[in-house]
Amino acid sequence: MSKKNTGKQSKRFLGSFTLKDGRAVTGELQLKGASTLLKLHSDQPLDSLTGSDKHIEGMAYSGEYLTLIDCLCSSTGHFFWKNEASNYHADIFPHYVAIGRTHLIANQANIKTIEFTTTDLSTIFYDFDAFGKVIDAKSIIDIVLKDIRTHRPVESGDMPIVSYFTGKTCIAEISTMIGKISVRHRPSYSMGGPSGFNIKNSMLISIEPENPITFDEAIIKMNDIASFLSILAGRAQGINDIQVFTIEATKEYPQAVSIYPSYRWKCSDKNAVDKPNPRDVPLNAITHPAEFSNVLTHWISRQSTWRLARSRSLNCLREGNKYGPDRLVAAANMFDILPIDATPTSNELSSEIVEARDQCKKIFRAIPDGVDRSSVLGALGRLGKPSLPKKVAHRVDIVHSKLGCHFQNLDEVAAIAVKCRNYFVHGSKEIEFDKIEHLLPFLTDALEFIFTASDLIESGWETQIWSNGQHGMRHTFGRFKVEYGSSSSELLSLTQKLD
Fold first, then answer.
1. Which residues, in sequence order, are CB contacts of 320 under 8 Å at separation 6+?
2. Are residues 142 and 46 in the same domain?
3. Which residues are in the Apea-like HEPN domain (predicted)?
4. Per the domain annotation, does 359 fall within a domain?
5. Residue 82's domain is classified under what CATH number?
């Protein structure tokens, strides 16, 4: 039997499971976030499970097909009673569990669609007019009741109410290099009656690659899209309601396989006060679909080379309102791992410098290996290549080209932020950090804004609508814009006094 618990994503299944060696054993699967666990029981030893059985298939007694993906065996053991046979047990931790009407073959390219929801999908795609209520329904109530009145008399009164859904389920549909990305309404409603009537809606986003892909590839694509949506929302998105559709399913009878990750993406700031306002979102997919499509398409096109740096940016976003030296260092270091085409070109060294560099390398390579020797050789190898300050300044120029009027002296603010990073990493004395320590959150926000805004601008963000709008404090972009004037003035005033 299966049993649903009150906790979100909390389920329990009892059933039979097949191991790699063909043995069938009984087990209990408990789904509850990171504590997901499969407890196996057998009358034969299960020690061989350690380090094996990456994927385990099972059948719940209630009929569900269970596929446990990327499994780890955490412990094995046995117990026995006097004069009775031994009972062996093992605890298996799966990174993903797939539940449906069929098993999921994780290592085969058989997934044609993956769909999911994220925390702020309805804010990012703020399709305000899709649902509504007719304020004065007197002129249309007779039309609404026309068909019903052919079966029975229905009287209308002085205050009729008509609610509606336009019926347009597709909000956006964009072709990208990873496939067709669609965002859709998924309304549910009651049939009405004496207790009333309601329409509830949820949104889902789907990725449909040109050709079927493996499970791992589908998860990577989903995470990439969730990263992009996190930027637009101004906070890390939670991912829920994951389903995949395989090539075995027909269009007439699609069979969804529900996916339960042990480590779900969770929203970074769950408080209602941190929920973004639609007007603060940098891109509007409803009123300016062409710009949104253009940015998403270009953003995805370079994700393979930007993924590492963007993942560091997302980690910073996950910190929410928590600031400290580690976050500032991480925010600065993500500029260092940008791909080469996102940084300034290397300087061409003069022949004299090249000759001096080569001679120095020869001298130091003759010295026994050591920390100082490696440090000098590393510095010599970086001659002419863009340094961190130059990389950050290059990204500042991109932001300044579109938003310079709102962020004057951003280059100076960024330079100070890098000096603070050097203070934490190298103990550099370029700046008296204790005098500006209270501005650490602002300096961190500056680096994160420069990184993300320059990325969106290069991807096609036009910025005019956002930059001319009025913004609140519920989005990282809007908060930085509101606070920039006073914080930057205080920072530059303090640093000038120190000079």
1. 235, 236, 268, 269, 274
2. no
3. 330-464
4. yes
5. 2.40.10
Domain match, 48 and 192 both:
no
Q: How confident is the model at residue 139 (pLDDT cuts 50, 70, 90)?
A: confident
Query: What is the Cα–Cα distance from 1 to 3, expressed in whole angstroms?
Result: 7
The number of distinct structural domains making up the chain is: 4
Look-up of token digits 């299960």:
46
pLDDT on residue 7: 41
Q: Is 287 within a domain?
A: no
Helix (H, G, I), strand (E, B) or coil at 183: strand
**Domain shared by 381 and 392, yes or no:** no
Residues 92 and 212 both lie in one domain: no
Residues 377, 393 within the same domain: no
The pLDDT tens digits for 144-191 are 888 888 888 888 888 888 888 899 999 999 999 999 999 999 988 877
Task: With respect to residue 291, please indicate whether it lies within any of the assigned structural domains.
Answer: no
Question: Which residues have C-beta within 8 Å of that of residue 326, sequence separation ≥ 6?
Answer: none
Q: Tell me which of 362 and 481 has the higher pLDDT.
A: 481
C-alpha span between 250 and 295 (Å, rounded): 33
Whole-angstrom Cα distance, residue 264 to residue 219?
12
Structure tokens at 342: 């996102």
Tokens of 389: 């300050």
Say whether 384 sits in a helix, a strand or coil: coil
Do residue 189 and residue 313 come from a single domain? no
The string of pLDDT tens digits covering residues 56-103 is 999 999 999 999 999 888 888 877 776 677 788 888 999 999 999 999
DSSP-based three-state secondary structure for 24: strand
- Residue 442, phi-psi category: left (phi > 0), alpha (psi -120 to 50), beta (remainder): alpha
- Cα angle 183, 189, 191; round to 5: 155
325 and 239 both lie in a single domain: no
Which domain covers residue 268, as residue numbers?
111-253+263-275
Query: CA separation (Å) from 314 to 93, 281, 476?
Result: 26, 17, 12
**DSSP three-state, residue 171:** strand
Residue 244 counted as domain residue: yes
In 10 A of CB 225, how many CB atoms? 24
Q: Are residues 152 and 268 in the same domain?
A: yes
Within 8 A by CB and 6+ apart from 103, the residues are: 57, 65, 66, 67
- Sequence letter at residue 447: L
Cβ atoms of 65 and 2 closer than 8 Å: no
Helices (H), 67-170: 121-124, 141-144, 146-149
pTM equals 0.88
